[in-house]
# Entry
Amino acid sequence: AEGGGLSYTEFSYQLLQGYDFLHLYENYNCQIQLGGSDQWGNILSGTELVRKSIGAEVHGVTFPLLTTSSGEKFGKSSGNAVWLSSKKTSSYEFYQFFLRTEDSDVEQLLYKLTEVDEDTLKELLEKHGEARHERKAQKFLAETMTRMLHGEDGLEKALNASHILFGGDLDFVSSKQLLQLGNEGIIPMVRAPKSDHLNDSICHIAAKLKVCKSVGEARRLVKNGGLYVNNVRVDTPNETLESLNCLMDGRVLLLRTGRKQYTLLDFSNSLAEQ
# Structure
């Protein structure tokens, strides 16, 4: 670390990666190691260790790093990377990652990551330049990348989640779709027996289920226009589940506190419903 010397992890990293190459060669006949250009020294430590240890010849190939316009690399250590596995990065998070791409980066990502022909990309970028606020290039990039990795089903999930989590009308959204977002960890979800909360105000429910710190906080949110049920603002603090008529399929509602804090409430009365 800067000003504090090397940590053991930093000191031993090249040694461990070099030994890893030797192990892979001896046990799996791995003869080529691929990596980003910043891994060149680590890969060479492996080729040298293999050559000096057992006299074999192995090889390394590196590729230019994918960087932002500011020169920062995309990677775990930089905090701006996504995982290919949906267990690590959901299709929604993957879609949003590319949707947030800066204008200064979107062109290079379209050319480097997609397989779209050049004429189509030129036309897209021209239209994007005419109305940058519409983010046509970013939407195209996000949809193309999500479809490529997660398929049409994954893209549909990502678009549905984006619609829901950015205040869209829920008239055509099913409880099944909402529960899917909760089960996949895209939206925090709380389960509670409906019979325990039928006569509670929405403010008491928010406090009891730890969505708000207290009833008072929930009431203040209502007063300031910051409490929403199914993306519809709650105007009075004494509204109940019955008066709001808000349970989708008799069990699910989406509670929003503030601008972007969503919680899915599942009021199922039995394990069979869950």
The first strand starts at residue 32 and ends at 36. The beta strands are 32-36, 59-63, 189-191, 227-229, 232-233, 252-257, 261-266.
